[in-house]
Amino acid sequence: MFQNGKLFLPPPNDGSDWKELFKRLAAAGAGRPVGEDGFPAGPWTPELLAEAISQIDSNRAGVDLRTVQLWFQENDRGISSANIRWLARVFGCDDPEATAAWQVELSAAQARLQAKRREAKKTDHRTLERPDVSTDPTVDNEQSSLVELTPDADAEPEGDRKKQRFSLARKSEALFSGGSPLNLPAAVFAGASALGFLSYIVGIHSAVYLRADNVAKEVGFLWAPNWTFLFMVLLPLFFALVTELLSFWTKEGRVRLWAWNDTTTSEDDWARNVEASSSSYWAVFLICVLFAGVFQWIGVCLIPLLEGGADYATSWGTLAIVRPEVISVPVSIAFTALAYFYMCLCFYLFLLGSFCYTP
User: Fold this and answer.
1) Of 115, 166, 219, 270, which is the most exposed, with the fewest CB atoms less than 10 Å away?
2) Of 214, 239, 262, 254, whose CA–CA distance to 348 is shortest?
3) Strand 6-7 and strand 2-3: pairing?
4) Run of H or E including 127
5) What is the reported pLDDT for 261?
6) What DSSP state is assigned to residue 341?
7) Using an 8 Å Cβ cutoff, are 221 and 316 in contact?
8) Pick from 233, 165, 252: nearest CA to 193
């Protein structure tokens, strides 16, 4: 049965525990997209399932790959109530009724697994030497498994154990592949529009100054195509194209390539490739922020505004030097700092889209 272009399997309601139920669903590939030939894309792997859960729009925190790997391993570990919700979304193929049915089935299977584990501990005389640390079916078994692996983890706050390490590569990739393909282009357009409205508020949207040779020159912010046409038209179109290409590659292109090469090795997983390039992301980010942002702003705007009167090119950023009645120096410094900060972030995203996410 197919639903929303994905393989849908109804809840069996056969009394299986969590491990038995998940093993069958993962092998069948329940919730995976259907290929062009009408057949399922294949079984789930830990990497593919972690990526699918992390791509759910409302799941901002994502899921750790180690947690998903525990689900595939032969152990008595269960699943947390929070991850039951996301896994039900995957198995329910984003259908509200099917998701609700799977959430009930997964919760019941988790409770049955807990009951089996408690019964096994009661019958094993060796467990009398150590207390049962979890008898509540709602306890997060994934977190408890990680705690047992590290004896000193009990001394750490629970929030610290759940907190994931910040990854610039993953966060940057999520800007292109997370949610709607129009999110990033709309954000860039909104930022440029906000700068345009702000320039109107401070009075530099359209300004004319008279040069020494009695030639009037327009230096308003809205008259600078590199700050209006570029950020309001060209970059949003570019980001829309890149997000579409990236979405196709991560969701369909890689699957087709794997099927053609007859391989599903985890080394080819997109998430691992992104994480492996973390140093490159940081290098591009620092170059854009420091050179395209901070250093350029200091040389082009800050120093001329602070010194004043020198032979500097007049633009909307240094208009306060020749026309202080239009805009003051402090306001000009604040506005140019905001504009250059926005510009360096856009340059960072542009370089990522140009060199990292396009063929």
Assistant:
1) 166
2) 239
3) antiparallel
4) none
5) 52
6) H
7) yes
8) 233
Q: Which backbone phi and psi does 93 adopt, to 5 degrees?
A: 55, 35
**Whether the Cβ atoms of residue 322 and residue 350 lie closer than 8 Å to each other:** no
Cα–Cα distance for residue pair 349/280, rounded to 1 Å: 13
For residue 34, the cross-strand partners are 40
The CA distance from 312 to 299, in Å, is 10
Scanning the chain, the segments in alpha helix (DSSP H) are 18-28, 46-54, 65-72, 81-91, 96-123, 141-149, 158-162, 168-177, 183-202, 229, 235-248, 254-261, 270-276, 278-287, 296-297, 303-307, 319-322, 329-351
Residue located via tokens 């230096």: 219
**Alpha-carbon span 347 to 293, nearest angstrom:** 9
- How far is the C-alpha of 333 from the C-alpha of 338, rounded, in Å? 9
Tens digits of per-residue pLDDT, 187-218?
Answer: 999 999 999 999 999 999 998 888 777 788 88
